[in-house]
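Worked example 3 (structure in, sequence out).
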């Protein structure tokens, strides 16, 4: 068994089925080894996708060392492929900040100017700088500024294994909404909704009402504004 380190593109301008779909794939650089639970932040101005975090949980099985702390950016070329470039790390123009640790299983989202990452854990599978056994829970709210690629930690909040999404239509500069929270192997309940006001930099908690979805784990999240512009569907 080997690690699949490829990046694949799908042409969304054409119809396809499971049998006819065509993926265009390129290999990621060996230094940008694909990890579990990586966060992907989209920078619309630079047309780039920043990749942060993740864990090498199978490193011992594959005898592959955990890669250096870094952030890589993927810039699509419009043809299903693109280019990977290290923007923070050993080969980049700026080093990866020493006070920040690569994390796994936190929640992440991005807007027009920043990438966000809340909570998660770290161990030998996330960082080559960690040598002790066990998991280290990492409370904190990391923000990557797309303009100058600086990372800040502005909160002591902790979230694990849930999902976070940016909702740009509420407030002055939008809010972040978080769903699901917990520690494996428990399923994550949806009875509480956490909201972060980016302008005020404050957290709020709202009890859910109505038909609350059953608890779940390893789910996906996507959002779109309602037709009447008075709802946001997730």
């Amino acid at each position: 068994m080997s690690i699949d380190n490829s990046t694949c593109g799908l042409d969304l301008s054409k119809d396809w089925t499971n049998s006819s779909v065509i993926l265009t794939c390129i290999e990621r650089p060996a230094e940008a080894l694909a990890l579990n639970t990586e966060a992907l932040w989209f920078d619309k101005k630079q047309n780039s996708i920043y990749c942060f975090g993740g864990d090498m949980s199978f490193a011992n099985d594959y005898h592959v060392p955990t890669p250096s702390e870094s952030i890589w950016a993927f810039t699509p070329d419009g043809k299903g492929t693109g280019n990977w470039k290290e923007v923070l790390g050993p080969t980049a123009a700026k080093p990866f900040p020493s006070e920040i640790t690569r994390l796994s299983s936190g929640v992440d989202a991005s807007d027009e100017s920043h990438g966000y990452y809340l909570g998660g854990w770290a161990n030998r599978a996330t960082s080559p700088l960690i040598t002790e056994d066990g998991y280290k829970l990492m409370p904190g709210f990391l923000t990557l500024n797309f303009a100058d690629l600086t990372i800040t930690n502005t909160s002591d909040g902790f979230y694990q294994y849930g999902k976070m999404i940016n909702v740009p239509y509420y407030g002055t500069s939008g809010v972040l909404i978080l769903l699901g929270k917990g520690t494996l192997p428990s399923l994550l309940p949806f009875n509480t909704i956490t909201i972060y006001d980016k302008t005020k930099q404050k957290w709020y908690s709202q009890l859910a009402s109505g038909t609350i979805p059953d608890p779940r784990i390893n789910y996906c999240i996507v959002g779109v504004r309602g037709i009447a512009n008075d709802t946001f569907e997730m």
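Notes: The mean pLDDT is 88. Residues 59-62 form the longest helix (4 residues).
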